[in-house]
């Protein structure tokens, strides 16, 4: 069907992802009165949308077609080009994170096309649509001020900054970059971008880059003639970093052929549906905008419910919250005497609970020094005990000089120890694992505890972040003092011990006050949300278990890592020589451009595609495809395979064998990872600083890294690993008799699947058929598409889709489970694990590119979440089970638990730990399929696994 978009049509593209940030930083904070939800960025976004629609529908001159474009996720094709792309981006502000899904909801409420594409950025979609608009004879205006989009300006394409109400054309681009739009890419490639972690050329900024491009005409000419440049530093920067500059050019160049599932005709402006739009605006409580829109549409504005009504509807809470006193920083107390401390301890004993928080010199609990302790027992009443504030000076030996009028740390700890360890007094914290470890290093073991972060996580996983600032803003309508106002940022940032005590009192005591108020608000809601069991059995008791594991750490042999780094370095040299021998010429193995020219120009391998820079794409997916062409292009296949090997070794060296050496704690000789309990929506733990859950095990070189994780003399490592736990859970949840029977009888599950699908007897099974069945088995858990399976198996998409269709014919229960799960998610807004964990799915009813991802996530969540709950329950029961053994639990890596044990007790540990994990006497979960655990022993993790 031919397109109707053409001459006279004008497309407006709103850069939704960038504009959310602009609105957030440019507009004053705004929260929804009913529940404290931050909505300032959403309000600004809605006003822009309405203004666009109003102009277009009033006179038809502003735009005939309109779309809002969003980033799909952080990972894009650019990460394959340069893994560190955008690696330094800071975490989203906690009050901005929940507003992203609301802007998508707003776009749909205004009846405007909402676009995003997996693997690409919003800018790539904008580039593609702008190009299509001009080629069709129309024009395009990009609603954004993002400098990265200025390369797109040309006849028929301009930009409009809605914050400053100004048009951005060629003159404005020259003012910004010193070059016209068609040379912006070259300037950005030279200057780089620290925000997006684009390397560029060291020491060359925008002004110098513009001077060079204007002098030499373009980037390729400049690099070819770089040796002619007279300034030594500038010349060296260009010559030595030429490849980085070319990579930078690939990163900044917008892809104007991004795959889209819409046409320009689909973006024609449509009037909003009044009921749907009014419902959204009322829900957001945008009274002024609701009135404006209602008047424009000629309808009556809906009456917004009172705050108490909205609160009841959201929380299903029949009684109103008691009115809370305002936050008063002047009322907080600084405890500087023993008498004052004793008064607070007496009050804590009377009430039987206390909210507690620590201030330290570092976020690394294993290296942090305690600076102060804050307490709160009554709403609005809190205190701070400074114990480690310094004057900034010190003695000849480097000891810090303490500020005056502070109680001695030992005295404070001795006074608080009976309180903190008293089983009759509840200690309340926000992210209590951190404070637990700080006190544990000082000889105190806090118990019992409550954790407001984990309460929120148990109730609201998938809806928002669970940091204190966000929870305070959302549920208390209060924005706490930002830590940056005390510590600063960048090179001038200080540690908390250098903060003036009077300033520290306001900040720290407020944290305890906020924590107590959150506890009063969230704790009663657990049973109404029907997640009390989740919190009490899966979240709260895990805190001391993980804290002990993290403090124990795992011993790492630095010499082994150093040796591996050297071996990898030598291997890289050998591979480079082999690669150049295969290619028949010397070239830079790390240069995608040079590699592409060899593969597609000289060797004539078909299918090469050049990007906007003129360089061929040589990402991992492309090389993997070429590596299969052994029959038709043997030289290219071998070359691609070796390049993949080289890239893998290079990553192993930089990411693991080099970086892990820096992560070894100098005091313990061990690596102490930190587990995030509330990091993943499904309940899976996340490991950071360093991430020990992501060490590759699929290749021999990757598995060798585990050889550096060792047991001390006289001890061994023991690994216990659930076997195919997610497939077993799928067999239970979807109630698949064939899979259940296979697991119970010990039949090869992948061979069984292959036999069922391809009608091949088990005794005639080939490795290739089994491999395909294995890919489908695991792919189904994640809702794999025909396209995804085709990539995994390197087969045509139609053939892959045929496999999936046949799979569902053989196992109809799985298809039924998927349909039922999506339906439940759409009806309830969440899915559940077998243990009652709720995983919210706010995007499940979305339309467009994001819909498929939301459905796949909903399908997988009960399976992955149940598996996570199983191993959580096992971990919580494990310390008591192995109490009489000389053994410690060190690591949890998804389905695996790793222990360190005395050598002569390893054989005793395995049956005890296996019993806990499999649940033979104390079942972790009642499944129709037996949970199987495989065990191994070794001096190193590699031997044990």
TrEMBL record:
Residues 702-905 form the DNA-directed DNA polymerase family A palm domain. This is DNA polymerase I. Its EC number is 2.7.7.7. GO terms for molecular function: DNA-directed DNA polymerase activity. CDD domains: DNA_pol_A_pol_I_C, DNA_polA_I_Ecoli_like_exo, H3TH_53EXO, PIN_53EXO. Keywords: DNA damage, DNA repair, DNA replication, DNA-binding, DNA-directed DNA polymerase, Exonuclease, Hydrolase, Nuclease, Nucleotidyltransferase, Transferase. The keyword Nucleotidyltransferase applies. The gene is polA. In addition to polymerase activity, this DNA polymerase exhibits 3'-5' and 5'-3' exonuclease activity. It catalyses: DNA(n) + a 2'-deoxyribonucleoside 5'-triphosphate = DNA(n+1) + diphosphate. Residues 332-527 form the 3'-5' exonuclease domain. Belongs to the DNA polymerase type-A family. Residues 9-270 form the 5'-3' exonuclease domain. Single-chain monomer with multiple functions. It comes from Rhodobacter calidifons.
């Amino acid at each position: 069907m031919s397109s109707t978009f053409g001459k006279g049509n004008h497309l407006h593209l709103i850069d939704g992802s960038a504009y959310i940030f602009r609105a957030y930083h440019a507009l004053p904070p705004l929260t929804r009165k009913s529940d404290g939800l931050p909505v300032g960025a959403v309000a600004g976004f809605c006003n822009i949308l309405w203004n666009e629609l109003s102009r277009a529908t009033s006179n038809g001159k502003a735009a005939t077609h309109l779309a809002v474009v969003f980033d799909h996720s952080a990972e894009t094709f650019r990460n394959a080009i340069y893994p560190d792309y955008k690696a330094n981006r800071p975490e989203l502000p906690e009050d901005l994170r929940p507003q992203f899904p609301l802007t998508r909801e707003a776009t749909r409420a205004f009846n405007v096309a909402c676009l995003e594409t997996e693997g690409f950025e919003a800018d790539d979609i904008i580039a593609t649509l702008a190009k299509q608009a001009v080629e069709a004879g129309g024009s395009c205006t990009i609603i954004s001020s993002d400098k990265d989009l200025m390369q797109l300006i040309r006849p028929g394409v301009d930009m409009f900054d809605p914050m400053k109400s100004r048009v951005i054309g060629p003159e404005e681009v020259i003012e910004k970059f010193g070059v016209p739009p068609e040379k912006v890419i070259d300037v950005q490639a030279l200057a780089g971008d620290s925000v997006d972690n684009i390397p560029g050329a060291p020491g060359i900024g925008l002004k110098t880059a513009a001077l060079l491009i204007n002098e030499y005409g373009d980037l390729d000419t400049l690099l070819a003639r770089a040796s002619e440049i007279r300034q030594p530093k500038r010349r060296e920067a260009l010559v030595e970093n030429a490849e980085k500059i070319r990579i930078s050019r690939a990163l900044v160049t917008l892809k104007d052929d991004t795959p889209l599932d819409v046409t320009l005709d689909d973006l024609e402006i449509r009037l909003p549906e009044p009921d749907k739009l009014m419902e959204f605006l009322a829900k957001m409580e945008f009274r002024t905008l609701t009135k404006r829109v209602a008047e424009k549409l000629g309808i009556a504005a809906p009456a917004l419910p009172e705050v108490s009504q909205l609160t009841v509807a959201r929380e299903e809470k029949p009684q109103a919250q008691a009115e809370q006193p305002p936050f008063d920083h002047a009322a907080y107390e600084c405890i500087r005497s023993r008498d004052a401390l004793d008064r607070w301890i007496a009050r804590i004993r009377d009430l039987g609970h206390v909210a507690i928080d620590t201030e330290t010199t570092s976020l690394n609990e294993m290296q942090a020094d305690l600076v102060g302790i804050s307490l709160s027992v009554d709403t609005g009443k809190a205190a701070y005990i400074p114990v480690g504030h310094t004057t900034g000076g010190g003695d000849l030996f480097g000891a810090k000089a303490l500020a005056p009028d502070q109680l001695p740390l030992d005295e404070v700890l001795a006074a608080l120890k009976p309180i903190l360890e008293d089983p009759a007094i509840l200690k309340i914290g926000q992210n209590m694992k951190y404070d637990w470890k700080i006190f544990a290093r000082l000889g105190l073991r806090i118990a019992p505890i409550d954790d407001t972060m984990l309460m929120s996580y148990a109730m609201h996983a998938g809806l928002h972040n669970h940091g204190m600032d966000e929870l305070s803003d959302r549920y208390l309508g209060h924005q706490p003092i930002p830590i940056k106002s005390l510590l600063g940022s960048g090179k001038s940032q200080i540690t908390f011990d250098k903060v003036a005590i009077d300033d520290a009192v306001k900040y720290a005591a407020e944290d305890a006050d906020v924590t107590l108020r959150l506890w009063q608000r969230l704790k009663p809601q657990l049973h109404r949300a029907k997640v009390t069991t989740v919190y009490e059995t899966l979240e709260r008791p895990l805190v001391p278990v993980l804290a002990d594991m993290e403090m124990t750490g795992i011993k790492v042999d630095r010499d082994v890592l150093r040796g591996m780094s050297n071996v990898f370095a030598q291997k890289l040299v050998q591979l480079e020589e082999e690669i150049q021998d295969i290619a028949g010429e010397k070239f830079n193995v790390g240069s995608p451009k040079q590699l592409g020219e060899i593969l597609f120009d000289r060797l004539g391998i078909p299918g090469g595609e050049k990007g906007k820079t003129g360089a061929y794409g040589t990402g991992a997916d492309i090389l993997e495809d070429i590596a299969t062409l052994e029959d038709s292009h043997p030289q290219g296949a071998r070359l691609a395979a070796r390049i993949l090997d080289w890239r893998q070794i290079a990553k192993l060296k930089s990411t693991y064998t080099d970086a892990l050496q820096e992560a070894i704690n100098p005091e313990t000789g061990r690596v102490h990872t930190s587990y995030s309990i509330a990091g993943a929506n499904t309940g899976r733990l996340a490991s950071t600083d360093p991430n020990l859950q992501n060490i590759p095990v699929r290749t021999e070189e990757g598995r060798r890294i585990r050889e550096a994780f060792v047991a001390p003399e006289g001890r061994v490592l023991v690994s216990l690993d659930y076997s195919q736990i997610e497939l077993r859970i799928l067999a239970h949840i979807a109630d698949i008799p064939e899979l259940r029977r296979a697991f119970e009888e010990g039949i090869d599950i992948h061979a069984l699947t292959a036999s069922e699908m391809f009608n091949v007897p088990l005794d005639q099974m080939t490795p290739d058929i089994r491999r395909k069945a294995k890919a489908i088995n695991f792919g189904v858990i994640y809702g794999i598409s025909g396209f995804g399976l085709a990539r995994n198996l390197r087969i045509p998409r139609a053939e892959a889709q045929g496999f999936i269709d046949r799979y569902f014919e053989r196992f109809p229960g799985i298809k039924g489970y998927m349909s039922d799960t999506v339906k439940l998610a759409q009806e309830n807004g969440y899915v559940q694990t077998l243990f009652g964990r709720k995983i919210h799915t706010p995007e499940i009813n979305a339309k467009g590119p994001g819909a498929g991802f939301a459905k796949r996530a909903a399908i997988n969540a009960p399976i992955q979440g149940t598996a996570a709950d199983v191993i959580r329950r096992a971990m919580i029961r494990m310390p008591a089970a192995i109490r009489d053994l000389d053994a410690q639990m060190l690591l949890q890596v998804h389905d695996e638990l790793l222990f360190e044990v005395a050598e002569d007790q390893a054989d005793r540990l395995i049956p005890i730990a296996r019993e806990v994990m499999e649940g033979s006497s104390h079942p972790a979960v009642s499944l129709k399929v037996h949970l199987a655990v495989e065990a191994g022993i070794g001096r190193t993790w590699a031997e044990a696994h």
